[in-house]
Amino acid sequence: MHLFRSAATFLALAALPAALLPAATPTSGQGFHVEDRWNIGGSGGWGYLSLDPATHHLLIARTDHISVLDTSTGKLLGEIDGMSNIRDIALDDSGKYGYATDVTDGTAGFVRVFDRSAYKLVASIPTGPIPYAIVFDPATKLVFSFSSRAHNVAVIDAATNQAVSTIPLDGRPGNAAGDGKGNIYVALPAQGEIQRIDAASKKVIASWTISACAGPSNLAIDVAQRQLFTTCEDHKLVAVSTGNGHTTIIGNAPENAGDLNFDSRTNMLFLADPAGLLTIFRRDSLHRYTRLQDVKTESGARTLAVNDDDSKAYLVTAKFGMNNSPNVSEELRYRPTPIPGTFSVIVVGR
After folding, report:
1. Predicted model pTM
2. Per-residue pLDDT averaged across 157-171, rounded?
C-alpha cells in the first residue's frame, strides 16, 4: 500500500500544432475494459510497479519482497526476498539487474540490488533515510535514489554498486522520471517546483516553479515530445515541457490522485483514481487533450503501469479491513489495512 504517495502536478505549455506529433496508432480510445484479474494473495502492502518489456514480467514491490509475474499468464514466477520496506523499482538496460528503494524502519535507507533472472538480492547500498523514487539512467549507467527525509539524491555507479555523489534538492522530492538521455526530473511538492538534474555532471541545472499547480508530485514522461505529466494537490492534471518548464492544463484530477503513465505509441495518458476509476486521455496536440474514457476498476487501485506494446494497464489493490491486533497502536488499529490473501492485479485492455 502506498504509505508515502501524495497527489501531484503540472501547468501551461507553449502551443505547437498537432501536425508536429507523430501519428498515433488508429484508435477510438473507447472499448477499454477490465479483461482479467489475477489474485496473487500474500500479506502486507505494496509500493510501485515496474514492467520489464523484454521478458514480459511485471515486478511488484511487496513490502519486504518483490513479486515477479508473467504478464502473458498472470502466473507468479518467483519472489525476491531479503528486503524490509521497499517503495520503488528501477531496471537497468542490460536486462540483468534491478534496484529497489528500501526505507527499512525510517532510520536508515538502502538501495537493494537484485538479479532479475536468479530472483536474488546481490547488494545493499546505504543511502539517505527514506529513499523513495529511483531512476536508472542508461546514458551514464548511474542510478539516482531520492531521499524524502534528507532532501537529496544518492548517485550510484551501477558498475560498482557504490554511491559516488550526493545531489542536494530544494525540498522533499516526490516522484522522479528520466528521459534515458542523461536528464532526470523530480517534482518537489512543497516548493511547487520541478527540478532537472544533469546525470553526467550530477548537478541540478534547472528549477521551474509550477505556478498553476499546487503540490506537483506524481510524474510521467513522454521522451519523444519532451513532455512531463503530473497531478496537483488542487486537483489539476497538467503537462510540462522538459525544455523550458512551460505548462498546459489538461483537465481535472481526483483527490489524492494515483499513478500516471503515458503511452507514446498511441498518445494516450492513463490516470488512476484510488476511488476505483482509470481515466484515459488522448493527446491531440501538445496543448490539447481529450478525455476518452473512464474505466471502473476497484477501490484502492491507484498503482499503475502501462505496457507500450499493447496499451494494457496493470493496477493493483486489495480488500481492506481494520487491524484488530492488540499489539498495534490505536491509530493503526483504525487505519484501513489490506486483508491477507486478497491482493490482486487488475488488467485493463481493449
Report:
1. 0.89
2. 97
Query: For residue 6, is it within any domain?
Result: no
**Bridge partners (DSSP) listed for residue 51:** 58
CATH of the domain at 166: 2.130.10.10
Distance CA 51, CA 160 (A): 24
Angle at 313 between CA 190 and CA 281, to 5 degrees: 65
Cα–Cα distance, 47 to 332 (Å, whole number) = 19
In total, how many domains does the chain have? 1
Sheet holding 76-80, edge to edge: 49-52, 57-62, 65-70, 76-80
Report the pLDDT value the prediction gives residue 197, as an integer from 0 to 100.
98
pLDDT in tens, 45-57: 999 999 998 999 9
Query: What is the tens place of the pLDDT at every residue in 23-34?
Result: 444 344 459 999
Chain centre to alpha carbon of residue 142: 18
Domain assignment of residue 7, yes or no: no
**Structural domain containing residue 140:** 18-349
Is residue 4 situated within a structural domain?
no
The separation between CA 322 and the C-alpha centre of its own chain, rounded to angstroms, equals: 27
